[in-house]
Amino acid sequence: MMEHADALLPIDVPPPRPARRLAAVAIALMILGAALCALALRNQHDRSCFAVGWLWAFCFVVSISLGSLFFLALHYLTHSIWSVVVKRVADMLAASLWLTPVLFIPVALFVLFPNRFDLFPWLGDHGDHEIHVRREYLNAPFFLARGAACVLLWSAFAWHFVRRSVRQDRADAAKSLASLLRMRAVSAPFMLVFAVTLTAASVDWLMSLEPNWISTMFGVYIFAGFTVTGLATLALATVWLRATGRLPRSLVSDGRLYSFGGLMFAFVSFWGYIAFSQYMLTWYANLPEESFYMVERAGGRWLGVSVALALVRFAIPFLVLLPRRAKMSPRLLVATSLLLIGGQLLDLYWLIARPYHSAGPAIGWQEVGPLLFCVGLLGLFVAWFVSRYPMVAAGDPMMEMSRRFRET
Amino acid sequence: MDNVAVKPIGVVGLFDSPDALLGAARRFREAGARRWDCHTPYPVHGLDDAMGLKPTRLAWVTIPAAFLGLLAAVALTGGLSVIQYPIRIGGKPLFSWQAFVPIFFELFVLFACVSTMIAIIVFCRLGRWHSPLHDSDVMKHITCDRFAVAVQTGGEGEMSDADVRRILEQCGCSEIRPLVECEE
Question: Do A280 and B98 touch (CB under 8 A)?
Answer without folding.
Answer: yes
